[in-house]
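Appendix B, record 7
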Amino acid sequence: MAASNSHRPQPKVKPSRPATPSPERERHAPRKVAAPEWSPEAKAALAWAHSARFLTTAAKLNQLPVSELPEVAFVGRSNAGKSTAINTLAQQRQLAYASKTPGRTQHINLFHLGPKEAPNQVWADLPGYGYAAVERAAKLRWQEVMAQYLAQRRNLGAVVQMVDSRHGFTALDKQLLEFVTPRVRTGEVKLLVLLTKADKLNRKEQAESLRNAQAVLGELATEESDMGIALFSSLARMGLDDAALSLQGWAASPEFAQEQARLAAEAQAAAEAGEGPLLDGDEDLYDGEGDDQA
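Structure tokens (predicted):
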């Protein structure tokens, strides 16, 4: 029997330090603010995130390279600011490509993080979803691809889902969440929800956005699950330090990373020979992504 709401574990809300707009500008973008004062730990995490570099791109799931390094998947509805958020976290302008043309970005892009000689994490930038102009067949194809990736990718360790703070979880956001829910409930996959574009909300609206998101995730929470929520803004650099700390905390240990590095040559040779598809199926990826500011 499912636990009652009163006893269900609740997802962690990360205490972002927002820049509060002045009263007369509450409904508009706030003025630019100075960089926040970050702790030494946050600065180290951001320096680690800055090491992100392109690894490979895959048009089909079975083209993804086999890896034992923990992989973090970035997912988000089109225009939720996913690519901008990735670039902001990495402090790089064009690490993740933000397409303005629906259907142009149709690949999963992978990035290595950590020391070049021994990477300790992989970021996976998945195609955006939910673009209104996309045909039904393409949307159904996206559903199948995302469901397979989130359910079967063996080294998937965490998912970072971008949700527009002004709109909250849409039906499509909840559908994507359902694909990975079984693995989140068992604690196999961690989940961090970034409520993007939070600088466009005033304090009261930010609090309401957090409460609504927490209610959605609260329905998924178990004693084993590891879920977090944070307000995020690329423009105001809100929540940047907390997100970087979470990501770095999911990285592999130096010993494990070094062991994987020793096997890299062999794995690369196998991949180039086209041996052993990682996942069953050869669905093409589709993205109606017009990603904009997070």
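Remarks on this record: The two ends are 39 Å apart (CA to CA). Residues 1-6, 17-33, 277-281, 286-290 have pLDDT under 50 and may be disordered.
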